[in-house]
Amino acid sequence: MGLQPLEFSDCYLDSPWFREKIRSHEAELEKTNKFIKDLLKDGKSLIAATKNLSAAQRKFARSLREFRFECIGDAETDDERCIDAALHEFSNFLKNLEEQREIMALSVTETLIKPLERFRKEQLGAVKDEKKKFDKETEKNYSLLDKHLNMSAKKKEAQLLEADVQVEQNRKHFYELSLEYVCKLQEIQERKKFEFVEPVLSFFQGVFTFYHQGYELAKDFNHYKMALQINIQNTRNRFEGTRSEVEELMNKIKQNPQEHKRANLFTMEGYLYVQEKRPAPFGSSWVKHYCMYKKETKKFTMIPFEHRSGGKVGELDVFLLKHCTKRNTDTIDRRFCFDMEVVDRPGMPLTLQAFSEEDRNLWFEALDGKESVFLSLNKAITKREVSAQLDKIGFTVIRKCISAVETRGLNDQGLYRVVGVSSKVQRLLNLLMDAKTCDEVDLEGSTEWEVKTITSAMKQYLRSLPEPLMTYELHKEFIIPAKSGSPESRVNAIHFLVHKLPEKNREMLDILVKHLANVSNNAKKNLMTVANLGVVFGPTLMRPQEETVAALMDLKFQNIVVEILIENQDKIFQTLPDATFSEPNSASVSPPNAPPRQSRRQGQRNKRPLAVYNLCLELDDNDSLSPPKECTPTGSMDSLSSQSPTAAAPSSPPDAQKNHLIHDGGDTVDWAMNPSSENQLSMVSWMKAQSSAASTSVVATAASFSFPSPSTETDQPTGRKARAVYPCEAEHSSELSFQTGAVFEDVQLSREPGWLEGTLNGKRGLIPQNYVQFL
Known about the structure:
Layout: H1 10-13, H2 16-48, H3 53-66, H4 78-97, H5 109-149, H6 157-210, H7 214-255, E1 268-277, E2 284-294, E3 299-306, E4 312-313, E5 317-326, E6 337-342, E7 350-353, H8 357-367, H9 373-382, H10 392-408, H11 422-433, H12 451-463, H13 475-483, H14 487-498, H15 503-521, H16 523-526, H17 530-541, H18 549-552, H19 555-567, H20 569-574, E8 657-662, E9 668-673, H21 677-693, E10 718-724, E11 743-749, E12 755-760, E13 763-768, E14 772-774
């Protein structure tokens, strides 16, 4: 469980638990600040101490390995998981460089030092300044409040009114400052993931340029690097979308805090001052307590808490309420007081003081057993102006807009991201929603309506439905598979849930997603990839019933759900879901006798001796000058919504291993060898001989392939057929899923160690080598 979200509504309660959450966020940022400071120091050592470069790299790698990101909420997207694992991957790469011990002149000032210093100064430093303001304002607010509440009620009415106004202004300022501080805390927690990792990624790109083996190392690292760039960009895009929603919610709460209080277990909660009587002649004292009342059980709970003493929490007291009465100023020298008679203390009422007359009235109304103010407020919040319905008009509007977009604007850059003028959008929507004028509106032939106006009207219609297209009822169920599971299980889950939607909702969703798939197919021109469309339509098609920061943190998972819908549109909408979906999928885990699969995500950048380069099985004359095919990440470049969150463990090596040395003439020399020094020397000698004789440089390989039973080491997969002996579920879009007995066509060795390439049912992809037997 990561850091808990900071709700804006909690700023107005300022409860002890809210303060604990703030301290957790502050501690995490302080840890980040210290880590970046240490990392900057290590980076400068790399520039100055080339003679001690290897030692500096080891320390730098250790620092990267030890740091871990904390997420807000209960889950991360696949992109965030990849970002979280990025520092570990970078650390592994540095370990490979330690054996080289070559002097290297590398300037990391522009690519690493300055961005991190700027991030630390502009972002983390800004949070520190905000913290000082927040702490200072906390002290000022509660000090002024204490002074105000201690003011005698016998003072002149004008003085009392002036004091009330002053306290209210100060309190409003404190709440606004608190809202801004909470927003900044959460923003920096999210921002650091990409603003910190990007400079480190740039540093590694520089390492490739200057090292003797930089090209070969970069070829090894390139697949992961490009995937990480997509992870970062997707995370950045989702962050921007979430930030705008969070700021909008903050502004709503700032304008009317009472209407946005969260529904919870308690009828009323907040701070009250409790009178504690002492033996004469010491009189009495007033102690601030955080109080909670539940009308159903009549339980009144209070806990002493003082903000100015470091937030120390006292012992909890629980009372059973009998009744309460207001106290007038002629019976007590304090304002806003009321007495509460409790079962536990007959004849000894508790005297409590609220912050204001309004606050006292709210408490009194709740304690008197009347209907809670908050319940009526919550009911008011749920009322929405219904201006759009899933009726004949609604379907006509959507079909008409889609037809116009696909006719006129399918190649427009930023389609659906570029918004139209609000007045024009509303005017068009009013015309389309009116049965009398809908048919008269010409969207395809007329230039009166711009494409951005049409797309904005379409989104506005979907947003103004009484509930989102994917319904409030299924909202949480759609989010769950987006947070975990394999790519295939995610698709199956969402496939199943789509068919639980009401018929009209599913029909409308089918029309829309089919259109979005067409938009994404033209992404090279309109730049609207699947990931970008997910960012635009995630909040439009899915939205939580209650607007909270915690719900807004799930926006990124809403985007992933939309990505999966677009990428699997045919399967999800044109076929029925598996009737046995709720049962465990036997293919999701390897059976007891199945061998472990070779990981393609980790373990590929292993140590290797000098002058032995990485695996290149399909080498031709141009391979030494151009990057390999694997430089482009397999699967969709649009999104990583279907990536596996974890990598499988690499397979165990067999007794005999195949080692291939391929030179530019095309000849292959095979060794069936044990890792003995004689064989290693034979390989190196052969390489040197070829190097001196050939006009071009020798590209050699010393990488092992596993050929365990049922495959034998004499099997040479060159376009042959193979049968699956174990079932397997794909963990990446470039892999194949299959059951025992499946027959693959045109099976060949892959560049991925431990993997084959083959065709099954017309689809070509990767197959774990030790899961098949050649025919």
